[in-house]
Design a protein that fits this description.
six-stranded mixed beta sheet, 6 strands, His_Pase_superF_clade-1, His_PPase_superfam, Histidine phosphatase family protein, PGM_Phosphatase
């Protein structure tokens, strides 16, 4: 049975250390959320799901309100925990680039790509089973989205992650638990 997942990578969010769960969206991000709603409002979406992080919820909230849907959050869809202590953004990006394909590598107190992929895929598989034949919008994050897509198709890796925008939208067509097609819906001209 055909099930569609719309992966909505969150809109632009101001980075402030220690606010991973609660930070909102920038002015540009808020404007882009309106564009996300415009793109997806006629897709026939049945279910709205998100990471529990505020920026991901806010990125699909306008769509959910337009469609009259409640947003269900799942802890397993949160962004990867990179380290147990504060790490400089430039250093973090360097580690992500250098260690992306070492799926078992993690910084002290953090989780590996493998850990993140396993927990998020467990949620996605349940979503695909529970909402089989439906269209589902998911508010998500760049790295966890890449890892979920990589599970189904290994061509989604570091190059894919590096080209993602904030926000970005990918339409994934599944037949049962098999990814059959991926279409990017976010248009570069919308940035």
């Amino acid at each position: 049975m055909k099930t569609i997942i719309y992966m909505v990578r969150h809109a632009e969010s101001p980075y402030t250390e220690g606010t991973e769960r609660t930070r909102g969206l920038t002015t540009k991000g808020k404007g882009d959320v309106e564009k996300v709603t415009e793109i997806l409002k006629e897709e026939g979406i049945d279910v709205a799901i998100s990471s529990p992080y505020n920026r991901a919820i806010l990125s699909i909230e306008g769509l959910a309100q337009y469609l009259g849907l409640d947003i269900k959050t799942f802890e397993g869809l949160r962004e990867r925990c990179f380290a147990g202590e504060i790490i400089e953004d430039a250093e973090l990006m360097s580690v992500i680039r250098e260690k992306f394909y070492d799926f078992d590598y993690s910084l002290p107190g953090g989780e590996s790509n493998s850990d993140c992929q396993n927990r998020s895929i467990s949620v996605i598989k349940n979503i695909l089973k529970e909402h089989s034949g439906k269209k589902i919008a998911i508010g998500t994050h760049g790295l966890v989205m890449t890892l979920m897509m990589n599970y189904f198709d290994s061509s989604y890796g570091l190059d894919f992650l590096n080209q993602l925008k904030k926000p970005d939208i990918y339409k994934l067509r599944f037949e049962n638990l098999e990814l059959k097609e991926v279409i990017r819906l976010w248009n570069e001209d919308l940035d």
